[in-house]
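New here. Invent one.

***
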Amino acid sequence: MTIQKNKYLKYFNLFSLFDTKRTRDIFQVNPTVHTQREDAVAITVDVYQYNGEHVSNARFDNIQACISLLNNKEVITWINIDGLRKSDVETICSTFNIHSLIVEDILSIGQRPKFDEMENVIFCLLNMLYFNDVTNDVEQEQISIVFGENFLISFQEDPARDVFNNLRDRLKLNSSKLRHNKADYLCYAMLDMIVDHYFLVMEKLGERIEILEEKIIRNSNKRTLAEINDLRKELIILRRNISPVRDIINGLIRSDSEFLEERTTKYYKDIYDHILQANEFVENYRDMMMNLQDLYLSNVNLRMNEVMKVMAIVTCILAPATVIGGIFGMNFEIIPLAHHHWGFYFTVALMFFIPVVMLIIFKKRGWF
């Protein structure tokens, strides 16, 4: 209820329409400063072990409890960790001999999506995007994926939201391709779900752009200008997170790692096509926002021109009456019709007749 109240409360204060805090949140990342991540209160560790014949699943609330299950080389092991704690990340990474630089990237905040290839693992870091229907903001969750020959470890910040549930259901099917491929195919499936979810977020933003366009056409005011400003910020977040993913997929396609099978490359090329399309959509949305801003300025100028036109017409209409009143108000002793019995009525009639004639002329010329 409080969130819904704050959503509309800001419109009562024109100075709060333009939220600069969101701008600071977008551009506050400094790569030279290592921001300390707060440890999660609790974590959830899901361990899936599977091959073509069977699949098993176990859930733990700490890293130490699952380490004993990681020595089976005959199956593919997927470890999904919801919630990040520095000690847990270091423990699991040391178990798989993962480089300390990757550990730093996993624990980083606001990291740019990236791809790294070490001696014994391949590392992908990117952001899952969500659209908050209450605040109309694009929210991001950092996801790190590390995989080797027969294992894959995924790190997620938010345990409450997870797009990999469909992937878990597919693992239970004997006919699923996941069961008959190695960890590189599992990585493909995860990246594919993340990229597909980008399109859902873009659909939400597209709907907002359409609604905003109708508002601008009907009534251009400071509120619509504030909405344009807010929407442009969300598109900045969208572009910052989607554009680098192309380099990640391109790195996986061009990699010569022994952990990537040649038959899996065609699947990564499919993701590459999707991410190119997503980048095109983002650029189109940026162009649309620029057009909306131009439309807003055009409507404001048009409204100003309409006001100035009305004021000019009123001024022109009143000008004859002003001139006539000024002539008959001069301090001359002899003024025609000044002492005539019908002089006053003739003057007033003239003051009304000339503006009516002017209105007819203006109307015929299409000036209003």
